[in-house]
Amino acid sequence: MASRTLNCFLVDDDPDDQEIFCMALEDMGEDIKCIHASDGVDALKKLNENAFTPDYIFIDMNMPRMNGNQCLQEIRKIARLKDVPVYMYSTSADPDAVAATKELGAAGFIVKPTSVSELTKTLKFCLK
């Protein structure tokens, strides 16, 4: 059986974080495509164009125009994305923030690791 490409969609306003995230996915050695948006507004536009349905969505908590929680809320309103796991992604692991994202429908919360190898390990766990 041929393996299919996984589409991971990262919503993050930091180009360096986008690059590190995509490098970590590449390090997994799987057939994974990294698509990114620079903020929640851009993400919703991409998701609504051509009915784009990623396999996984990762959203940075702190972004301009629309924060991570607002973006998550809007994504959860899109019926075809209801079963897509959404992980929140942040430098901080405030327990109240983590709890709030779970209530909004996040599958999990990832604290941004300091190295690509750590992020690769975390993403392998999430993509199982």
Structural features, described:
The chain has 128 residues and is α/β, with parallel strands linked by helices. The chain has one domain: Rossmann fold, CATH 3.40.50.2300. It is 39% helix and 20% strand. It contains 5 helices and 5 strands, in the order E-H-E-H-E-H-E-H-E-H. It has helices spanning 15-27, 40-48, 68-75, 95-103, 116-126; strands at residues 6-11, 32-37, 56-60, 86-90, 108-111. It has a 5-stranded parallel beta sheet with strand order 2-1-3-4-5, with helices on both faces. Helix 1 crosses helix 5 (116-126). The longest helix is centred in the first third of the chain and has 13 residues, at 15-27. The two termini are 18 Å apart.
Keywords:
five-stranded parallel sheet; globular; 39% helix; Rossmann fold; 5 strands; alpha/beta
CATH level-4 homologous superfamily: Response regulator
Mean pLDDT: 90
CATH class: Alpha Beta
CATH architecture: 3-Layer(aba) Sandwich
Low-pLDDT sequence parts:
none
Record the strand order, biggest sheet: 2-1-3-4-5
Distance between the termini: 18 Å
- The gyration radius over C-alpha positions equals 14 Å
In terms of DSSP E residues, the strand content is 15-25%
Short description:
39% of the residues lie in helices and 20% in strands. It is of the alpha/beta class and 128 residues long. The longest helix has 13 residues, at 15-27.
